[in-house]
Amino acid sequence: MNAPAGTRQPRGLARRAAILDAARRLFARQGFKGASLAAIAQEAGLTDAGLIYHFPTKNDLLLAVIEAGDAEQDQALAPVRARRGLALLRRLAEFGADLEADPVLTALDVTLSAEHLQEDSKVNRYFVQRYERFRALLAGAFEEARAAGDLRADLDPAVEAANMTAVLDGLRLQWLLSDGAVSMAGGMRAYVEGVIARLSPP
Amino acid sequence: MNAPAGTRQPRGLARRAAILDAARRLFARQGFKGASLAAIAQEAGLTDAGLIYHFPTKNDLLLAVIEAGDAEQDQALAPVRARRGLALLRRLAEFGADLEADPVLTALDVTLSAEHLQEDSKVNRYFVQRYERFRALLAGAFEEARAAGDLRADLDPAVEAANMTAVLDGLRLQWLLSDGAVSMAGGMRAYVEGVIARLSPP
DNA sequence: ATTATCTATAGATCTATAGATAATGC
DNA sequence: ATTATCTATAGATCTATAGATAATGC
Are B114 and A169 in contact (CB < 8 Å)? Predict the structure, then answer.
């Protein structure tokens, strides 16, 4: 029998972490449907039935992988969130470089978001909401910069927020597809600089 | 027995087209791995064995779907290619609106490119090369605009090309995920205008 | 005569369950 | 005494093949 039960032992916690790590790598490389439980279990060093003890269904595993990734992305965003207005946008110029530091997490995000574009599921809602929150963060920074007089009064925060999100996302895809030949770090820095130059008050 | 043979009858050609259409819709919605041959066959109004007569393997079907999509995208790009330099870039401002006209083809592209990010396959190579060609088209236009004195001499064509491609791609994803709330057409127009404003000669 | 489609089915996965066994903590 | 893992297997897909039958073109 199984059932995650109340208390977990150190050994179990380590296994859980190893499974999550293996699952993240394989989901990132082959997608959710492309990576089988057996392949993930093998990568983590146990049998598929052993894996199922820790995560009752494949979907539970996916949700746990997403949750772990979300927590890490939140952490990566902390230095951005710590700032306001123009300073926040300037810090975001470095976010391309931040993403280059973790290719697996970046590929996971691209793959899973594309795989859950339309279906009505928990994963789809997660991505929809995450994009909404990210755009709201940027739109708020543009508004603050405008209110502070650091950027032009006639800028459109919603459009600027969506476009800045888009560049980061699109660079991610090209960076992955070109195997690093297209620079996320460089592209993002150039974009943010350009936005600030264009929107600087006359 | 089967085998595509030399001559195809009108009935067969119509069926082929119906299968390609159904496959495009289902691949776009559920991805290559997510859409089964049986589901595609049902959508096209025949059995899976009937489908296999027209496309011997699922991968053959995928390649045919991609080829058909590529041809349509080439057609959509014709008005862009017909121009040079700054005029080409200005025409590209309307490309977001062009993509909004075909949500299925747009979703197909996002889904399949993400699904074939890393694996070494014909589909992966197709996307890698298509992005290279698209960036080369834009980089060439930036160079021409610079040479003609329409844009600043110190612009970086490679970075501008990658970033413009990125915005289009990223907007595509947000447009799909937000169910149209984020406007591809508006975002792309704003971006191109902004680039031209920023890079206009002093 | 050839092209198109169907029924039936083989063979390969894949997720998940049941129940036994091994390892760990108290 | 509880937690973790294994073997064995059920049941559901899924791709693809073989061979029969139906529809079409000459």
Answer: no
Into how many domains does chain B fold?
A: 2
| Å between B10 CA and nearest CA of chain A | 35
Give the nucleotide at minimum CA-to-C1' distance from A5: D3
pLDDT above 80: residue B11:
no
Please tell me the distance in Å from B11's CA to the nearest CA on chain A.
Answer: 33
Whether residue A160 is found in the same domain as residue A69: yes
Q: Which of B112, B174, B195 to mutate to test the interface with A (most CBs of A within 10 A)?
A: B174
Q: What is the CATH number of the domain that holds A23?
A: 1.10.10.60
State whether B33 and B78 are in the same domain: no
Q: Is the pTM of this model over 0.85?
A: yes
Which residues of chain B are within 8 Å of residue A31 when distances are taken between CB atoms? 31, 33, 114-115
Give me the domain span that covers residue A155.
63-199
Using CB atoms within 10 Å of the CB of residue B21, give its burial: 0 to 12 exposed, 13 to 18 middle, 19+ buried.
middle
pLDDT digits (tens, 9 = 90+) for B57-87: 999 999 999 999 999 999 999 999 999 999 9
Do the Cβ atoms of B173 and A166 come within 8 Å? yes
Confidence tier at B3 by pLDDT (50, 70, 90) = very low
| Paired tokens of B111 | 């889904």
| One domain, residues B109 and B186 | yes
Range A42-51 contact pairs with CB under 8 angstroms and sequence separation of 24 or more: A44/A15, A44/A18, A44/A19, A45/A18, A46/A15, A46/A19, A51/A19
The torsion defined by the Cα of B172, B178, B184 and B188, in degrees rounded to 10, comes to -90
Distance B49 CA to C8 C1' (A): 11
